[in-house]
Amino acid sequence: MVFYECVLTAKNTAPFTSLTKLMKTISSTVVENGGIVRTVQNHGIRNLPHRFKAKYPDKEGNRYYKKGRFISVWYDASPRVLAKVENEIRLDDQILRHTHLKARNKLWYINIASEKKNPYIQKVIAMEKEQE
């Protein structure tokens, strides 16, 4: 399984109930397919770097947004599950942008078998060379 970070930018006018429902569907998709949802964080409403264009105008006719709600979801899943999650996000009209990052932590480096890429193995090899 791969550790992913999903950053979502939603409309600032999006109802909280619809965003909660989206987070529940994303979480259930990950868990039903053998993944683990580590955390979901709401970073609140912030100014966007430039105005974002929505797929469709909302009920008031707004299509461009200068503010957005940022949400992060961290989860472990297979790449097949990642495609399913992205499909669910694309179908939601409240989401302006989304991106998936392959998050890395210290355990990721420990699990690498290649000596050239693993900094911990390199330290051990260097210590062994010094002792000789």
From TrEMBL:
Q: Mind naming one GO cellular-component term on file for this protein?
A: mitochondrial small ribosomal subunit
Which terms does the record give in the GO molecular function aspect?
small ribosomal subunit rRNA binding; structural constituent of ribosome
Its GO biological process annotations read: translation
On the tree of life, the source organism's domain of life is Eukaryota
CDD domains in the record: bS6_mito
Under the heading PANTHER family, the entry gives: MITOCHONDRIAL 28S RIBOSOMAL PROTEIN S6 (PTHR21011), SMALL RIBOSOMAL SUBUNIT PROTEIN BS6M (PTHR21011:SF1)
Similarity-based family: Belongs to the bacterial ribosomal protein bS6 family.
Q: What is this protein called?
A: Ribosomal protein S6
Query: Which organism is this entry from?
Result: Helicotheca tamesis
Tell me the classification of the organism that encodes this protein: Eukaryota, Sar, Stramenopiles, Ochrophyta, Bacillariophyta
